[in-house]
Amino acid sequence: MFVVEQGVPAELERDDADATAVHALGRGRSGELAGRVLATGRLLLDAAGPGRAVIGRMAADPAVRGRGDGAAVLAVLQREAAARGQIEVELHAQVAARRSYERAGYQVVGGEYEEAGIAHVTMVRLL
Hints:
With 127 residues, the protein is α+β, with helices and mostly antiparallel strands. The chain has four helices and seven strands, in the order H-H-E-E-E-H-E-H-E-E-E.
């Protein structure tokens, strides 16, 4: 989903961290969306230093944006990080999605930069 939805080349998306990452996804529960993957994300433990996890590969199907599917996946990954002893979470947010992460309690640290051809900012949140 991340490759298709975000337009990120598959060779940049796939890496060895997938084998040990915590993956989360949200599926549709009813109607024509039943069973369909609507949102995804992954969690890398201690990836930004001891006790500091990194959330990435966040994507939501455009058909359901604004309904909370992405926010639900983010919440699951945050709970999983806390349950595994992490005290802070970092993510690289696309600038267009910055406000969504701010609503979830994240703060921007540093300036904008380009990642996979897309403008991003680094954001952090204490758990």
